[in-house]
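tool_call predict_complex ligand=4-nitrophenyl beta-D-glucopyranoside
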Amino acid sequence: IAVQVPPPAGQLPADFLWGYATAAYQIEGSPEADGRGLSIWDTFSRDPAHTEDGKSGDIATDSYARYEEDIALMKSYGVTAYRFSLSWSRIIPLGGKNDPVNPAGIAYYRKFMKALIANGIEPMCTLFHWDLPQALQDRYTGFCSRDIIEDFVNYAKVCFDNFNDLVNLWITINEPNVYALMGHCLGTQAPGRSSDRKISPEGDSSLEPLIVGHNLLLSHGAIAKLYREGGYKLPGKKLGIVINVNWGEPYDDTEESLEAAADFMSVTSEWYAHPVYCGDYSERTKRVIGANLPKFTPEEIELVKDSSDFFGLNHYTTYLIRRPSSEISGSNMLMRFMGNVETTVTYPDGTEIGPKAGLSWVRPVPWGFKKLLKYLYKNYGKDIYITENGVICPNEGSLPYPEILEDDYRISYFRDYVDQIIALKDSVPVKAYIGWSFLDNFEWQEGYTARFGVTYVDYEDNLKRYPKKSAIYMTEYMGKAIAKA
Ligand code: PNW
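tool_result ok
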């Protein structure tokens, strides 16, 4: 494929990390290999009603078996880092602190990480990217219970003891906000609990996302304490959390819309970021969520405060925010958890915020990313690691091979977003840019219908991998943008 690559707008420092991300359940397959236990995503996605194409992650991209081929391809892309997650139920099949550790799972991930390092790729390792061991969900309803904290800390300790010599960059949790809302409010993701859709037989779970969020934060704080006090935080090593933050731009310049946008930012990101960086829920989050928001004790505030060495940011898009035209009904939980606001992509004059993409919720709005980076650095003062950023081209799901490789829309998205980092390089310290995703994969409730990869995976022909045009473009663009050591 011929690709025109213009010179980047400026230089990033030589130690800037660049690469792609994936998550265990989305790529590994091999659900029974080497003594793996069941996770809530096995259970959830094996019900065909739960995914767009009725398919589960049982096969995914078969990356558990094909890791050598995948790493070779990654190396050919010139990346310097790879963000992946560990499958908790491969390491402790039943999940808990009194359950046996699985040596085969540990051996596998050690072999895998060593292969990355041997190829010059820095492992960026996430402990929990949503695939909770099913046994813990069954035992005490997973993150609904405080019992999860000790079990999660124990799992983290097993990982630190076995992999810390190979990992400099640890991530505790991927997107606690998305896990709490999708899994315990909308019910569109595992464990599929929802007050609106009543997927779970237990029925009402209206307080659940608040409790789940709280237990995710406490788990993160306890793991950070173990990491620091347990002697794992050696020079050059870091541990943090990853939060998904989209930018909320006021719909118009009325006071009402400014307040609505602030409320949106408060409950989508501040809910998690404020405790982690400042020690408690923010006053605005307390006000917007109301009396049901759990309270931290003074000891817990100390535990979660300043518990992340960096701001791990997953960012995809920007919305226009206004107050809803009509009263939000009590059952519309998501709305309430979004700060009693309405999101739209259309300005008052009818123009749209960005071109339509292949999924309804993500449109390219690079200027929103720039505003967000400034906002996050001003509020939290931490180095920022972009741990996910990506898009799907319009029609990408239905295009045949080889046309599907011509993803110019993704190229523009990546270039425009990277250019914001370059533009801010003297004012906002961004240390890494990790795109979502290394390859097309199991996109949760969308099944295999949504292709976020820079690598096309042919699900009809033995999962063969083909670099899309964006992969080729990014290799050259980032190669030029990052200064040589
Ligand atoms: C992330 N939003 O989730 C996840 O970390 C990935 O596993 C996933 O495949 C990827 O994004 C693409 O969806 C998100 O509503 C879920 O803005 C929701 C949003 C963003 C990211």
